[in-house]
Every structure is written in C-alpha cells, then in structure tokens.
Amino acid sequence: MIQTTADKTVDVFGPDSMLRRFVNDARWGFAVARATVLEAAHPQIGTALIENSTFVTHPWRRLRNTLVSTQRILDTDHRVRNRETARLNRLHARISGTDSQGRHYNAMDAEARAWVIATLFESTVTMCRLSGQSLDRPALERLYAEFRTFLALLEGNSDRLPPTLREFWPYYDDVIEHRLENTEAVHVILYRLFANVPAPPLLRNHPAVWAAGRAVAGPVAAAITIASLPEPFCRRVALPDLPGARALMHGAYLTAGLATRLLPSSWVHVSTFVSLLDPDHADDSGPWQTVRRKAGQAAAMLRLMTPAPDKVSQATRSADQFFAEVLDQTGDGYLAWPDLAAMAREIATRLDLDEQDEERLYTAYAAWWRELQTHLDTGGDGRVTRQEYAASAVSLPSLGLVKIADVLFDVTDLDDDQAIDVQEYQRLFRTAFHRDLTGRADSYSRSAFVREFLSFMSGQQHSTAYNTLLS
Amino acid sequence: MEIISRLPRHVACVMDGNGRWAAQRSLPRTAGHEAAEAAVIDIIEAARSAGIKWLSLYAFSTENWRRPAGEVDILMRLVRRAIRKHAPALHTRGVRCRFLGMSDPRIPPPLVRDIADLTTLTSDNRQMTLTVAFDHGGRRDIVEAARSLIHAAVPAEQVTEATFARHLPYSDTPDVDLVIRTSGEQRISNFMLWQVAYAEWVFPPVLWPDFRATHLWECLEAYRSRQRRFGDVRQSTATTGEAPR
C-alpha cells in the first residue's frame, strides 16, 4: 500500500494501521528516544536542534506536542491530517539559518526529513526485535509503506525514501556509515538531556524527589539508548560501551514488550503515561486515574509536611528562574530570536492557529524582538543576556509585547465578544479560570489581559496560568 | 444506642466570641483567634468520635474582610499554620476537608495552595466531612447558583428547590440539622443560608475559644430534646436529622 499523495477521502493508513498501533504503544518511547539520537547525528538536523529546539529546556512539553502532532497526522479524518501537516510545514519553514561555524540548515530539507522518517521506521523495527516480537516480511513491508505514506503526507511525495524495503537497508547503512557526524546535539541528548531532564509537571514542586530519581534514571536511560544504537554508529561517534549495558537494554526492552502483551492495552497506552506525568493535561478517565490521584495526594502531603518556605521566595519568582523557564526557551543561556520563535510556535500549536493568525503572532514576536535588540542588546552580539534583560526590560515601551498580547487576545477570543470567558481561557491555558484574574466578573477584558501579559513577561508578576503556557 | 440514633447528621458551628475572649483578658483580638485553634481541633475530634458525619465551621465571612488589615493578615497566617500543623492528623482520622467560598483574590496564594493540598490529600476520606466556610457568604452562594442555572440554560419551569440545590457549591452536602452559635449572639450572619433553612439553632453563652467537647455534647443533648416538625403541625417527633425533601 504505497501511496505517494494524501488520499482525501479514505483512511490512508488503513483501519488496522500498524503505525497507529505503535504510536499509541508506551514502549514506542524507547524507539523515539533512540531515533532522536540518530536524527541529531545528521548534521543539518543536529544544528537545527541546537539552534532552535526547546527539547533540552522543555522536553516534556516537546514530547506532548510531538505526540499530539503524530496522532493528528495519523487521524482518519483527512481534514485533521491536512491541517496538521500544513501547520508543521509552516512551523518548519521558519526554522533555517546558519550556525556559528557557518553551516546552513533548513528544517524543510527533503533529505533530512526523509532521514527522520527512516530513523523512526528503523527504531520501531529494532524496538520490536529487542522486545522479543518478530515482524515477518509482509509486516515489515507494510510498516515501511505506512512510514512512506507518513512522509508523503508531510512532503507531498516520498521520493527521498527508497521505494522498497530491500533498497531501504543499504540506504540506511550508507547514511549511518557516511553521512552522520559526531554532532553537539548527540552529546546534548545523551549526556545533558538525560542527566538534567527537568521534572515532569507532576513533580515540579519536588525538586529533591526528582533529582534523586533522575540521578539513577538519567544514566540508565542513556545507557539503554546507547546500547540499542547500531554498532557502526557507536564506533563513529565514539560512544562508550559499558559492561552490562546491553543486558540492561535487553532487559528493559523485554520488560516493556512483556508489559505490552500482558497488561490491559489501556494501561500501556502512551497517552496514559503522558497524563500520569502531566496531570494538568489529563482527562479524568483511564486506569491510571487512581494512581494519579494517589500521587497527587502524596505530593500534597509532602508539601504540607515540609516547612513552609519564606514569604518572599513564594510570592515572587526569582529573575534567574523566570529567565531560564520562560524567556530562554532553547536553554543556551541567552535570549535570542529562536527563543521568541519557540514561544510563538508553542502558542500557535496550543491554539492550533490557522496561517493568518500564526503570521500575525510571529510578526508581533518579531516586533518585540526588534525592540529588545534595539534597547537591550548593549553587547551588540545579537542576543540578550539575563543581566541585560533584568537591567532594563521593565523600562521598555513594550510595544512589541502589547502587539503579542493583542494577537493572543484576538485568537483566544473565539466568539469575538471582546472578552475572554471561561472556555476560551481554558483553551489557552488548559487550566481552570485563574482566580486572581476574575475578581467578581466571569470574563476577562482586553485591557486586563494585556496588562497581565505585560507584567508577566517583564518578570514583574508571577502567573500560574502563563507558567503552564510558556514554561 | 439512643444517642447515635438521634444524632444530627450535619452540625454547623458559627465560631463567635474570639475578640471578646481576648478583650476579657486584655489581650489583642488576634490572641482570641489564636486560642480558637484548640477549640476547633477539640470539636472536630469530639464530633467525629460522636459519629457526626458532616461538620461545618464558619471560619471567615465575606464581611470579615472589613476588619483591620493587620488582623486579617494574622488570621490568614494562623489558618495556614493550623492547616499545615493538623493536616496529617485530620487525614489519618479519615476526615475529608473542604473549603466553602474561597473566591477573593486577597487570600494569600500560599494559603490557597495549602488549602488545595489539604482538600486533595483528604479527598478520599469518608469518616467525616469537614466543611470550612472561608471567605463565605450564604447570599453569594445563592446568587452563584442562580448564575449557574442561567449558564446551564435550565428552563424556568424546571427550576425547583431540588434542581436549584444542585447548583450550589458542594451540592452533595445535606441540609444542616443543628447550628451552634457560641457567645450567646443570636444572628444568622449570612451563613449557609440555603442549607440552614430547617436547622435547629442553639446559642450557648460560652465564647468560642472556651468551647470544648462537653459543650458540644450539651448542644447535641439540647438538639435531641427538641421536636422537629419541618412546618408540619401533625408530626411532632423525629429528631433523626433526616429532613424531608
């Protein structure tokens, strides 16, 4: 079933799509982590990731967005599919440039995009192999065809991937042998991301618990991922071969495979895990609901029993934290255009904006960026440091921010009644109507919205709602 | 088992007299609030061991915001301290804690957080439900319920007492059977107006900081000795706490 164009009337992946099944399988997390390392070793993708991606600072948000996006592309409704692919293409079209060593990158590069799909296919096959589930030849061919359809939906065609499975393996080996490099992004994923991955929303208020768990889980996750990578790749990138790592990796994959076969399917559904880690975005159903509730209660108990922090640190968020969590989206320690673009991208994704609104939002962010550059970039290096921002952000005219707030208000105010009601508010912040914004009214005027946004973005006022959106 | 069988299902306390208690001892008003904590804990435990399933305490009214800022500030701190101090004990005793009201932006965020945590922590408990009316106003609840009805587009002919009650906050709370207002004051003070419609009221002269388990038992005894009619002149018995709906 090789289709090179998106079929407008039927489910292009078929009712019993293998890809759809794998994507909803929690063990696909292993495959995605492994594929991400192989993608990051591609010079173009690696550079684009380092320069633009928020995956180091906001990996959980990134994971959720990826999951939602993949599920939309695999949706049976062609309108959902087309809307999502168009949105992804617009998003990627904005990611291009030159890195500090003068190398060009472009997220629309067809060869690089084909490689992303190739790594996902190969990692899915490897995931099945390592978890003791063999895919016979017809199943492999069908899965490959579905991945090619996936690429065709994104690219318009799947010419960059070999037409048959037989031709795929030489192509894959060739890229591994000759094209991949020891990029910075590979090291960032394996050693920085796994070791420093920020707490998932569930544990954000328990840095000590998270740090203790991560001290063990981080190196284990890195070891499992490295041990599952192709040998020639490990050799080229000089990845360590730790004793016992392969046994650990096999054990992890086998356990995941057994869990998939033995546990009820709803327990090992990927969205179950995501909702467990991120209770704010979870619905109130599913088998993990009790676990989640109990975890919430344990967290509440822990917070109530730990000594209350002093008033100041509770009431105001420190400038460093605000800079790191909200402004510096890419985690490079500076505020630059990719950080602002990442914020625009997140809002556009969250609200599923159409092209026109998305353009307005990006233009507004660009205006803010010009303003920041003009007034704050005293070092003249094209980026703003935390000190530069802290020194004069409050005194800026903030016209750019007003523009962003205006666009944000317009796209949130769906019924155009010049007020944001409870439903509209929830759509933007995915959280209950914020009590300190409502006062006695049950809606939110434009001026109040703009005021709140401005004081949040200049770091003057803490807002739980904006935190859920941008940090 | 006569006591148990005639126990009110839902008891509410208007905790009055903290200021006077302090004044009698030439102490600042806030000392009275501080002393009130012991009474609160004592009554919660006494009610629970007596077998009362629903206990409501009027801690802070919407009108209380008119008090001096310093007093309000200390009161908020005291409530926070008490919550953090007693949360584990309340949880282990199976008390489900809920807060009625809580909509004013002046409530300090850390207190809001702690209240949310206490509510989450104890949400599965069923030994007794403790409703703390905090930043509460009975009229406001009724107005909110009316708004909620309008938002839900309920047709006028379908608005009955029962449907209206379902739009009140914590609509699973049964009607109050017995209200205890300490310090001898005899006013309703905008407290759970809908729920107290058929309640029996007792007004013990003791000030709230001095109110203890023995006083509660006396109030329960007074309740048992009364005859509840719910407006019906023929029936003159049944102090079971079950009001006809």
Summarize the amount of helix of chain A as a percent range. 55-70%
- As a percent range, the share of strand residues of chain A is under 5%
Q: What portion of the residues of chain B fall into strands of 2 or more residues?
A: 5-15%
Q: Give the overall shape of chain B, derived from the CA principal axes.
A: globular
**H/E order of the elements of chain B?**
HEHHEHEHEHHEEH
Order of helices and strands of chain A: HHHHHEEHHHHHHHHHHHHHHHEHHEHH
Instruction: Sum up the overall morphology of chain A in one term.
Output: globular
- Note poorly predicted spans of chain B: 236-245
In what order do the strands lie side by side in the largest sheet of chain B?
3-4-2-1-5-6
| Main sheet characteristics of chain A | 2 strands, antiparallel
Write down the overall mean pLDDT of chain B: 89
InterPro entries (chain A): EF-hand-dom_pair, EF_Hand_1_Ca_BS, MPAB/Lcp_cat_dom
Domain ER-bound oxygenase mpaB/mpaB'/Rubber oxygenase catalytic (chain A): 21-251
Pfam family, one (chain A): MPAB_Lcp_cat
GO molecular function (chain A): oxidoreductase activity
Throw out a few tags for this protein.
A: 471 residues, mainly alpha, Recoverin, domain 1, globular, B: 245 residues, alpha/beta, Undecaprenyl pyrophosphate synthetase, six-stranded parallel beta sheet, 8 helices
How would you describe what is shown here?
Chain B: Mg(2+) binds at residues 16, 200. Chain B: Its cofactor is Mg(2+). The complex is a heterodimer of chains A (471) and B (245). By secondary structure, chain A is mostly helical. Chain A has two domains: 18-259, no CATH class; 315-470, Recoverin, domain 1. In chain A, 64% of the residues lie in helices and 2% in strands. Chain A has 24 helices and four strands. Chain A has helices at 18-23, 28-40, 43-52, 59-73, 78-93, 110-130, 137-155, 165-179, 184-196, 207-228, 231-237, 245-262, 270-277, 289-305, 311-315, 319-327, 337-351, 355-376, 386-392, 399-412, 422-429, 435-438, 446-457, 464-470; strands spanning 96-98, 104-106, 419-420, 444-445. The radius of gyration of chain A is 23 Å and the shape is globular. Chain A starts with 17 loop residues before the first helix and ends with a helix. Residues 1-7, 312-316 and 431-440 of chain A have low confidence and may be disordered. By secondary structure, chain B is an alpha/beta fold. Chain B has one domain: Undecaprenyl pyrophosphate synthetase, CATH 3.40.1180.10. Chain B is built from eight helices and six strands. Chain B has helices at residues 2-5, 18-24, 29-50, 69-92, 109-121, 138-151, 161-166, 213-225; strands spanning 10-14, 54-61, 95-101, 128-136, 178-181, 200-202. A six-stranded parallel β-sheet of chain B has the order 3-4-2-1-5-6, sandwiched between helices. In chain B, helix 2 (18-24) packs across helix 3 (29-50), helix 3 runs parallel beside helix 4 and helix 4 (69-92) runs parallel beside helix 5 (109-121). Chain B is globular, with a radius of gyration of 18 Å. Residues 236-245 of chain B have low confidence and may be disordered. Chain A binds chain B through residues 293, 296-297, 300-301, 303-305, 308, 311, 314-315, 435-436, 439, 442, and chain B through 80, 83-84, 87-88, 91, 103, 105, 109-110, 112-114, 116-118, 120-121, 123-124, 147.
